[in-house]
Amino acid sequence: MSTSTQPRIAIIGAGPGGLVCARILQRHGISATVYDRDASRSARDQGGTLDMHPGAGQKALREAGLLDGFTASARPEGRQMRLVGRDGRVLFDMAPPEGVDEAGGGADGEAGAAVGNPEIDRGRLRDLLLDSLHPGTVRWGHKLAHVEPLTVGVHRLHFADGATIDADLVIGADGAWSTVRRRLSDATPVYTGVTFVETGLDDADTRHAALAALTGDGTMMALDDNRGFVAQRNSHRHVRVYVGMRTGENWHRDAGLDLSDEVAVRDALLKEFTGWSPDLLRFITDTDTGYTNRPLYALPAPHAWPHTPGLTLLGDAAHLMSPFSGMGANLAMLDGADLARALIDAPTAIDEAVRAYEDLLLPRSAAAAEGAAEGIAGAFAPDSAAQTLAHMTRRH
Questions:
Q1: pLDDT tens digit string along 270-285?
Q2: Where does FAD bind (predicted)?
Q3: I need a labelling partner for 22 at 20 to 30 A (CA). Which of 30, 225, 261, 323 fits?
């Protein structure tokens, strides 16, 4: 494709899906510009660890020419999965043998597919993708305000600082509260009924030796009676902890709780987990960081939109679901790779390419969203320990 005939492609959001799409397009001589609201690549923490599935995240990285880089940064030991009862007893503990790489969840959206898929920290994955792009590909500090249709297939992007750009294809990779999605769909994320309160610890501190041992080398879950703990090992000896509850979206306001008051938050969480093992309660009391409230949202499923020339979605903007799908980032990266491939295969027919991509995306994401809804319902239920144990032993 010659430069004069190249479409103006704008990707909104520098998450894994948008960056994969930009990288694959660039490898095939097609330009794309990524616009992100963050002031810089280091403006905020990128979150916990991800398991990359062979049929999804790893497939996208291979298409991007980055699989070797991923392998060098991944943590195969992070595949361990441990289930603990509320009394602190280990109910299930498994990591696949060395050299075994199970197919896992592939692209089918089944929850609980972490075992068998190497882990990588979100920040390391993002750095790998960002470093692979041509300089200047990502324009930081560009918060999208709204999208204005100009002519069929052409849209003007209005940014919060007053800047505008016109594009022949706008790819909404802008996450849960996508601005691009508003132009395509009336759907908005709905609270799942579950909130995570995030905290963490440094296992280099000998005070945390018992918590580090209980976490193991991968992910530890303790789930029962609509509550639970998820402890997830990250790089640099950090353990990220999520204290989960099935509760009201505004539980803290209803309790008159100031989330900035760490002592009050700690005491409220301890009350929620009355009767749980003291060993597990230390994930609340003995951590090194504060508490961050993270209510979990999902788009109504299935989520679809009328095909609109010049616009499409990928990742959470298209199919936000609970983390219990085990497939969020994997699907976003597969979306980005499939969209890029469709554009490469039909370089002079953008609309035809986007239609082909959406024909793949919509049924796949509907199936994944169904699995995610089932996953969070089972993980935060009155008998969640029994349900999760049955699921794990059935799979392994």
A1: 999 999 999 999 999 9
A2: 51, 122, 316
A3: 323
